[in-house]
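Fill in residues.
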């Protein structure tokens, strides 16, 4: 009889994420209206907004956003959630199942990464991440794919974001892929268009009927398909087609390049196995430049859900209309990766996936010390009211309390049962505590250890915090806490005493072992001496016997001689 976990894995193995009836890329692009794309591009280009501006928002117009997930998007999120819920995959001893290993090999081939020539990495972080994710040593932790999907970077460029057990990477859409999106959309056989179909596609883009395609016509066609394309990518497309250098694309130029994109039989065979990445989006197997960036989670400092927590480098997005679609990843090398999702629910799904992996990486990392401080997980994943308190973000907390999000309440408790006020007391953040109390935070919530914020303040002897909490009706759960603390203290003392006795016994045993060794050595030496004396005694006895025999012989000889001299 199979377990629910086995059934879930069977469903995952059978799931064609990007089949024609279930395509998250199609849903992703359909979420972007022209106004929304313009807004995203505008926000991305406004990153030079003065970070010291006191909360002023970017004047980017009033744009509505669709917040409802499609059935396909809901199914997609559920499928990846099942993978992320398997705690055993984060163990350093976890070994991927065969289907997971095949999936990793497919991704590796798609990115054209080999053990000998892994990748033309732009940074040591990318090279190190690719090596660890795809080519771990025998005893190193193994990675499996936990989530993937479409994302926008810099508000314009499409990327495929892939999250693995121990790191993440982004894969870019290339020239060939963009062209296939533009000219093979809705074709019965998108891998190969005949001359008539090519002409129809060309005429569809040539909006003014001039016989040539100009940059603005090409850009407008991409926009109408819901595909945001940066100016740099647009220039690359024009240059690839523009053989004579007149900055326009004639039909002859268009036909020549399109024939160059026809896949070989080998390519078609491999394409049939790449459903993981989308049959409409990535049609070609030319792997040069697919990989964009890659980071191990141990090389990432923290992540921000920008609609809740923002820093100087993301404030311009936090002050814009797209803040609830954005999140940022902050690697330790000082780079900032800002990603935009199609809907707020998608942003939440990405945050959940990244936080699961990042927190597990920090928790089990051999050299991490960040986990020593209270609420460390909320500092690593800045996506809640807990994060605002732990980071002592007064402006962010004030903004959150003034305009609370639907999924983040003032009295919410985390996995340790602590509220934001518990953390304010633990870290002696007086200003945060004042804001929370003035906003009617429940002052007597018990955490998993049965402690109220007052108990924590008393334990740390934070007199100012105690007076503040007491002024809002805060009480200590003292009797229960003292009892539990006494038991805990006694257990710790017993453990220390046991360890001390163990150390003493170990010392005595070591000393006794040393003495026994010395005694045995002395006995061996004494035995050697006794054996030597025994040999010497035996030699002396032998010599004495010889001497006695010689003496008897000599006596006998003398006696016989005396008989001859006196015959009477």
């Amino acid at each position: 009889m199979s377990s629910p976990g086995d059934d879930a894995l069977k469903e995952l193995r059978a799931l064609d994420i990007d089949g024609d009836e279930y395509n998250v890329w199609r849903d992703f692009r359909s979420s972007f209206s022209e106004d929304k794309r313009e807004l995203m591009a505008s926000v991305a280009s406004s990153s030079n907004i003065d970070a010291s501006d006191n909360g002023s928002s970017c004047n980017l117009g009033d744009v509505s956003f669709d917040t409802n997930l499609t059935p396909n998007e809901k199914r997609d999120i559920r499928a990846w959630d099942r993978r992320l819920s398997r705690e055993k995959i984060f163990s350093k001893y976890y070994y991927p199942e065969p289907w997971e290993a095949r999936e990793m090999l497919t991704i590796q081939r798609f990115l054209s990464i080999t053990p000998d020539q892994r990748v033309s990495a732009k940074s040591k972080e990318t090279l190190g991440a690719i090596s660890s994710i795809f080519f771990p040593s025998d005893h190193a932790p193994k990675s499996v794919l936990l989530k993937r999907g479409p994302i926008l970077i810099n508000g314009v460029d499409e990327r495929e974001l892939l999250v693995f057990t121990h790191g993440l990477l982004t894969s870019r859409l290339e020239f060939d892929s963009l062209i296939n999106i533009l000219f093979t959309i809705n074709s019965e056989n998108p891998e190969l268009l005949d001359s008539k179909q090519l002409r129809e596609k060309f005429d569809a883009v040539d909006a003014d009927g001039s016989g040539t395609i100009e940059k603005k016509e090409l850009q407008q066609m991409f926009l109408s398909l819901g595909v945001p394309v940066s100016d740099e990518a647009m220039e690359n497309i024009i240059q690839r087609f523009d053989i004579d250098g007149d900055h326009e694309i004639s039909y002859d130029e268009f036909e020549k390049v399109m024939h160059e994109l026809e896949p070989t039989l080998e390519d078609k065979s491999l394409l049939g196995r790449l459903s993981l990445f989308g049959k409409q989006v990535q049609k070609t197997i030319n792997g040069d430049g697919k990989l964009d960036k890659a980071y191990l989670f141990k090389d990432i400092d923290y992540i921000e859900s920008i609609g809740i927590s923002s820093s100087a480098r993301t404030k311009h997005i936090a002050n814009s209309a797209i803040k609830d679609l954005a999140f940022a990843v902050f690697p330790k090398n000082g780079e900032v990766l800002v990603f935009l999702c199609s809907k707020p629910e998608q942003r939440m799904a990405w945050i959940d996936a990244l936080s699961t992996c990042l927190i597990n990486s920090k928790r089990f990392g051999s050299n991490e010390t960040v986990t020593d401080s209270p609420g460390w997980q909320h500092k690593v994943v800045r996506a809640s009211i807990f994060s605002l308190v732990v980071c002592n973000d007064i402006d962010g907390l004030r903004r959150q309390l003034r305009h609370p999000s639907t999924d983040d309440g003032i009295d919410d408790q985390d996995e340790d049962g602590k509220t934001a006020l518990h953390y304010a007391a633990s870290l002696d953040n007086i200003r945060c505590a004042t804001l929370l109390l003035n906003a009617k935070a429940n002052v007597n919530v018990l955490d998993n250890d049965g402690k109220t914020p007052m108990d924590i303040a008393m334990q740390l002897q934070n007199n100012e915090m105690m007076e503040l909490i007491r002024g809002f009706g805060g009480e200590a759960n003292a009797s229960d806490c003292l009892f539990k603390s006494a038991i805990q203290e006694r257990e710790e003392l017993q453990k220390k005493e046991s360890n001390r006795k163990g150390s003493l016994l170990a010392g005595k045993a070591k000393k006794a072992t040393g003495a026994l060794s010395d005694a045995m050595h002395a006995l061996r030496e004494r035995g050697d001496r006794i054996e030597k004396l025994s040999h010497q005694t035996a030699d002396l006895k032998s010599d004495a016997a010889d001497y006695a025999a010689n003496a008897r012989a000599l006596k006998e000889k003398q006696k016989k001689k005396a008989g001859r001299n006196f015959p009477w």
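Residues 175-277 form a domain with the Recoverin; domain 1 fold (CATH 1.10.238.10).
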